[in-house]
Amino acid sequence: MKTLAIIGSGHLGQQIAHYALSDGHYGNIVFFDDFAVESEAAGFKILGNCDAIEAAFQNSSFDELIIGIGYRHLAVRKQMFERFDGKVPFGTIIHSSCWVDPTAQIEAGCIVYPSCCIDANALIGQNTILNLACTIAHDTQVGKHSFLSPRVALAGFVKLGELCILGINSTVIDTISITPKTQLGDGTVVIADILKSGLYVGNPQRFVR
Taking CA 59 as the corner, what is the angle to CA 55 and CA 41, rounded to the nearest 5 degrees? Predict the structure, then answer.
């Protein structure tokens, strides 16, 4: 089976490695990490920093790449994806417990955690993470490089910009547009378009900063 390379050997990277192996998507894992001092993480080799990725791919050290950098560093996730896009193939992990309509599109570099539901004509943009039990309704678009926490629910015809962070149990009603670089706190309910980037909390949502 294929070998997956993960950028970032911390907790998120190790969690992605667990699902990649336990759900049968890949047969082996290697890491690349600019900050690690060890040679292994979770029993898998760290082959070097990010400058070593292209050479390692050319040497057949791995087959596909995924970014395991968390929600606090979305700009770095985007930078890394754009740095290697077209040079190294990106993988996509969709856990086998998910339901994904055949008309939905999930782009390269995405990780879809267990028990997510992705409805008809939904689009999940590149390099996005959907954590446990997210629901993406029909005709909704999730922007690139975004991070959706567990149990986020997006109703139909929502347009979520890129580089957004949606907190646990946040909900967005139908036909809402949310501008890029928006963060929703845990449990936020969005009932009106968000046109200004920043942090929003509450039910209904209110701008914090």
Answer: 75
